[in-house]
Amino acid sequence: MSSQALPQGQYSRPSWIMLLALIISPIAIAVFVSFFMHGMLFTILYLTPSVDTEMVDQAEKALRSQTEEKPVDLTVTDVGENPEIAPMMEVKNDAPPPPEVPEVPAQAQNVTENLPMNLTPPPGLGSANIAPPAIDLSATGALASMAGMGGIYAPGGVGGRTGAAKNQLIIEQGGNPESEVAVAKGLRWLALHQAQDGRWSMKEFHKHGRTEPFPKGAMVQGDCGCKNPGNSVDDIAATGLALLPFLGAGVTQKPPKEKPNVDYHLTVLGGLNYLIKKQNKEGAYSDGAYSHAIATIAMCEAYGLTNDPLLKRSSQNALDNIFTRQDPAGGGWRYGSKEAGDMSVTGWMLMAIKSGQMAGLRVNSQRMKVLERFIEACQNTKVKGEFQYLPAEPGNVSTMTSVGMLCKLYLGVRPVNEIMLAAAEILKKQPPGVNKDIYYLYYATQAMHHMGPAAGAWKFWNEGSDGSGRGGIRNFFVSEQFGGPRKPTVNNPHQHGSFFIGSTPGNISDNEGGRLMHTSLSLLSLEVYYRHLPLYRREMAAGN
Predict the structure, then answer these.
(1) Of 83, 445, 488, 490, which sees the most CB atoms within 10 A?
(2) 1.10.150.20, 3.30.2380.10, 1.50.10.20, 3.40.50.2300: which CATH number matches 148-541?
């Protein structure tokens, strides 16, 4: 043989090396390419200007603050005993009358007038160093459909009661430092007339005078000296009425995140706790129609502002109870369950329903359609824009027209509707000061506010016919306040901050509601600038 076979081992060694190389070589190439590409990328990044690290830090902090906040458990529906309520204090009724409120400069910010003040504004105003952002109208449609906190920014919602948005609305809608000082004084008067169990009284508020807001301080011995008690012995209605101005100013039952000048959250908590304890298994706070409606508005607003699950069940049960009382045929409400309705009671019931809707609570849409028919039936077919007490009975035409207007606007009728424009002209004939019925002024102020620029309604109502403020609702109420910015000296210091218009002998709101009801409705009227976002904003959002 010319060649000799090699031993087997000499062939096998190079074969395995070649096989291993074939396997490793693609990996090596990939690793090399990866190192090369990453090296190029790091070089590019090194040569490229970096992003603003301060902005990144701010974004990270914002994200951390959102994730660290404990989410609200909306599945909790049991109200139970509120663990936050302060224990009732035993106090002796031998305390001296409360001292005068110390006079300190106001801090209402970004307002158009520089007027002398003698009390800090109510809680809820934003910082002087932060310009109030414009309210985003483009988002109102989506927000209106969201439950809980979302709906509060819809037109008519309660999302403008605190912070920079509140500052903006005071300017935009025509409030001023005087009106805010009047609100602050009024809230203090209410806080100093709360009973030790958390309630208020229309007939005996003068027997519940305090030296400090609930639950602190002592009860004033005997009568605090405040005059004009009402005839009504209805502590449910009184408590609801007293709570509404606090909620209207953005004060809730939750401790404020930033310490305010005056902290009223326990005042609100005491009142809500009282109402919850009075609610029966059918969801009623009271057998009285007015009382239940007013208490329901307060409870729904408190829930809507805080999404507090402790209030959810109480609010929902109260709303359900309202629909069980409705007249199934006519669609309205009156004093008795399922009784044929009147415009007055129906107005309060509708406001309670709308408060629940904006808080994301369940509402019977079919019964709402029947309600619309009742409002239509109360329109006077002979006088365009006029609404009646009953479908076939005029009653107090001016007051019922203001109630009917507000109901129609909340049911979706546009301010430029011919019926609404005609109704506004009817109210213009009885402006503030000409008609001093507090019930009329309360409803008319809301209706004209939601009319906005249509027919010049709100400018006329707020600033008077000549635009000077004289004859307008703002200056009217500020001038009527006992111990207020325009009436600082009164005989009884304990009446400071309260209202009693009381110009109509025999008027039911004077006789029944007395000073507590007058103070509540007056404060709500002075909070109109931010208490509810104007309904005409939905027109602006739609581009009309």
Answers:
(1) 445
(2) 1.50.10.20
